């Protein structure tokens, strides 16, 4: 989300879309910076604990065997995270200020917009894959899902009904993200329904002990 918001800010210099969306991206950068600082300060130290090796910012349910190139965003110290963001911002700023032919080209501007918004739109995919692999939505709260879908609906209504300039990149990526969140809702219904049935049958079996009420009632 941090990278996506940075790309959206630089996308604004070429497309001059709605000012409200620019302000939202700038605020999101600040919020994500604070969250990254808190996460880095409070994460467990890398190493082996209780016979398990801890990898920073890794999923405990990752069984695909996929490893990120150069351990991207799983570095063991805090410095590489801030160095990456500094280099990333410096590179985009250098292109914007020192290379106007590139910064003003339609291809470069569209790449900034579509890459940034695609990153944001695909944020639900890791949760979808994790639910699919585990066949469970354990730990995923219904309130979070409801908030995501409500946010998608409000976002889409603004993108398609606003009189301000809204590039189609925002609309397409918002539609994709809404579809992903709705599919998360389908997963939640699919994977929680069997567990509810199992819990109900367990209660029935526990209650069917041929014990009359007078046997357990205190007199």
TrEMBL record:
It is found in: Membrane. The chain crosses the membrane at residues 20-40, 81-102, 108-130, 142-160, 166-186. Keywords: Membrane, Transmembrane, Transmembrane helix. It holds the Pfam family PQ-loop. One of its GO terms (cellular component) is cytosol. The keyword Transmembrane applies. This is PQ loop repeat protein. It comes from Petromyces alliaceus. The lineage of its organism: Eukaryota, Fungi, Dikarya, Ascomycota, Pezizomycotina.
